[in-house]
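Hey, quick one: can you model this chain's 3D structure?
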Amino acid sequence: MARTVAERADILPLLGEVFREHGYEGASLAHITARTGLGKGSLYHFFPGGKEEMAAAVLAEIDGWFEANVYAPLREQDDAAAAVRDMLARTDAYFRSGRRVCLVGVFALGEVRDRFGAAVASYFARWRDALAAALTRAGFPSAEADDRAEEAVLAIQGALVLARALDDPAVFGRALERLGRRLLDGL
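Sure thing. Here's the predicted structure for all 187 residues.
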């Protein structure tokens, strides 16, 4: 059945889930049309550049969400400890308590890493840098803030992978709890 879509943005969450489930290489037009309910003509109307444009648009949408909900609050919120707590809560919600893989991580590990390398690198670097900025504002020396921030991004991504590998989303929740204690220790 054909789906009525008002705007291109309506399709992006559906495309994101196709890429999460199948990766870029495995996200066939058949998978995309089945998930979106759109025919090939409608898809190419919204995305004349095909699958590559679809993936780039999904990455841009993810980037926008993280900028508004994670990076900017970490950089700008006066209460750095509250910003870190908010980051952990929003991260948990975004990744559905460990039930949703990180699409940027999927792209980072896949064959398309070079094609989307700038977006992938920016996502991880901006997260690390925004968190380091919050920790520095909270009083940690710059080098320690940088180390804690890098460890945090590593822990989040690793917990997502382990939760998926073990089919145990609770792994993610436990990792975020431990991470919160480590990040906020001394604040």
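One thing worth noting: The first helix runs from residue 12 to 26.
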